[in-house]
Design a protein that fits this description.
The structure holds two protein chains of two kinds.
Chain A: H1 3-27, E1 37-47, E2 53-64, E3 71-73, E4 79-83, E5 87-92, E6 95-99, E7 102-103, E8 105-106, E9 112-113, E10 138-139, E11 144-147, E12 150-154, E13 157-159, E14 167-168, E15 173-175, E16 181-182, E17 187-190, E18 192-194, H2 200-236
Chain B: H1 2-26, E1 36-42, E2 45-49, E3 66-69, E4 72-79, E5 86-88, E6 95-98, E7 102-106, E8 112-115, E9 121-122, E10 128-129, E11 146-151, E12 156-161, E13 168-172, E14 175-177, E15 185-188, E16 191-193, E17 202-204, E18 213-216, E19 218-220, H2 226-258
Antiparallel strand pairs in B: 1-4, 2-3, 5-19, 6-18, 7-8, 7-14, 9-10, 11-12, 12-13, 14-17, 15-16
Helix pairs in contact in B: 1-2
The chains are: A alpha+beta, B alpha+beta.
């Protein structure tokens, strides 16, 4: 009896969450190395009256679109873009985190750090540092860092057999308990930055779709309410 | 609705972006100006269904969870320290730095500020000062009756005094470098000051290892590239519009909820 109203409700709840995801994608359309998220919906079968199956909608998960974002030139010697499915390692107070946002700086002691000030790790798990009086920092395609004072180490570039193991943890960082493996096929590009892979056109059309579906669900709820009311009116008139 | 707050963070971020770009364009002709870029980061994620949670008593787990991000924030406004072009001015006391380093300027409060704008002047006592009248360290005084002043690549200031055949060495301009130039704090008037993030200055003569060389009669122009600033401005404006559209749609959805029968 109430099934139609609940179906409309389940659809509206799901759309409500989906627009949050779309809003977050659009808000991060200028965040370096941001990966767009998608909502994953599934049908949820419920036995209604007279044992008729009624399908509700369920938001099963969010999936990250791990497609490479466009690479743009910045001219900053400590900006790195990764070409391939690798990640750079960052040491945070909460443990090792992974990132594709290679916008780094030197701190006062010559350590290469992220915008939050977390040290970037070199191969071997040590923070990457260059001598404080070094000039002309160059980084080769395999991540080897060379300055006027000689070689200073190599950026640790890693990948994961299953990229979905990585969970976003704000600030462009990802966290996982999975064990990383070396990513020799990932190319490090110096002076470049990976932009957000959000495609505004797709997000806007998705948003329009959500708005339309939302109003369809509302119309369904409204007409269901009218139907119930008229049923009560008519059935109530016992002659 | 959360989507409204998320879109609002997006609009605020793009507003900052436009402000940074407009400051870059405004300083297109500022000597020694380094362009800036706003850097954004995603905000925290809310877990509505954790990835890895058990989905049955058979030990199957949820491969992906429901994680909703709550927007964007400005992480930093970076200064991009790329070398600007050298512009020939033929002015005796215009000195450009080619390579690393900053001129040291003595501020009225006694502290030292740093600049790459080498458009210097002479004070009434013959001292080399900036356009604002602040003394350039180490405080060189050009002797009276000087016909010609020359500054060589390694920073030596030489004066040809009237009636003398030999040029006279007035002194040596020194440069300072920092482990992290991007960590210097802008204080306006082309000046930067040291912070904990920049590290301590390393002083040295120009044209030695780790320091740039000087070019007399040239000025370093700002490293702002107008074309890329304008394209960034367009992108920022469109991104702002898209976020405001999200707010409109969220508003429509909320208002349709209010009219639910």
């Amino acid at each position: 009896m109430q099934a139609a109203a609940y179906i409309a409700l389940s659809s509206q709840m799901a759309l409500h969450r989906q627009i949050d995801v779309v809003a977050n994608n659009l808000a991060n359309s200028s965040t370096p190395a941001f990966k767009a998220e998608r909502m994953l919906f599934a049908e949820y079968l419920n036995r209604g009256a007279a044992n008729q199956p009624v399908s509700l909608v369920q938001d099963l998960g969010t999936v990250r679109d791990t497609k490479q974002g466009p690479i743009t030139r910045t001219g900053n010697p400590l900006d790195f873009a990764l070409q391939g499915d690798g990640y750079l390692q960052v040491q945070t107070p909460l443990g090792t985190r992974y990132t594709r946002n290679g916008r780094f700086q030197l701190d006062g002691t010559g350590q290469v750090v992220t915008a939050q000030g977390y040290p970037v790790l070199a191969e071997g798990g040590q923070p990457l540092a260059v001598p404080t009086d070094a000039t002309d920092i160059t980084v080769t395609r395999d991540g080897t860092v060379t300055t006027s004072q000689g070689e200073s180490g190599r950026l640790a570039v890693v990948r994961f057999p299953n990229e979905r193991d990585l969970v976003p943890a704000a600030g462009g960082l990802y966290v996982t308990e999975a064990t990383p493996v070396a990513a020799p096929e990932t190319v490090v590009q110096q002076g470049m930055i990976e932009e957000s892979n959000v495609e505004p056109v797709i997000e806007m059309t998705r948003m329009m779709n959500i708005a339309h579906n939302f109003s369809f669900a509302k119309d369904l709820g409204d007409s269901e309410s009218d139907r119930t009311r008229s049923a009560i009116d008519k059935l109530g008139k016992v002659s | 609705m959360r989507s409204m707050d998320i879109a609002a963070t997006g609009m605020l971020a793009q507003q900052l972006n436009v402000e940074v770009i407009s400051n870059n364009i405004a300083n297109l002709n500022t000597t020694g100006f380094k362009r800036q870029r706003a850097e954004f980061q995603d905000l925290l994620y809310q877990n509505q269904r954790r990835p890895g949670a058990a989905s049955s008593d058979q030990g199957t787990i949820v491969p992906v969870g429901v994680q909703v991000g709550i927007g964007v924030k400005a992480a930093a406004v970076y200064r991009i320290t790329e070398q600007g072009n050298l512009l020939k001015t033929d002015n005796t006391l215009d000195v450009a730095i080619q390579g690393k380093g900053f001129f040291q300027i003595k501020q009225p409060d006694g502290t030292t500020a740093y600049t790459r704008a080498g458009s210097f002047q002479m004070s009434n006592t013959g001292e080399i000062v900036t356009a604002d009248g602040l003394v350039v360290n180490p405080g060189l005084t050009i002797p009276a009756d000087t016909i010609q002043v020359s500054v060589n690549a390694s920073g030596q200031v030489l004066a040809q005094v009237s009636g003398q055949t030999q040029t006279q060495t007035v002194g040596q301009l020194e440069l300072a470098t920092f482990p992290n130039e991007a960590g210097l704090l802008n204080v306006g008037n082309n000046l930067l000051v040291e912070t904990a993030a920049s590290g301590s200055p390393v002083q040295g003569a120009p044209a030695t290892v780790g320091f740039g060389t000087l070019q007399q009669g040239f000025l370093e122009t700002s490293n702002v590239n107008v074309v890329s600033e304008i394209t960034n401005l367009i992108t920022a404006q469109r991104a702002y519009e898209m976020n405001s559209k999200v707010i409109q749609v969220s508003d429509q959805m909320s208002s349709s909820l209010n009219s639910f029968r």
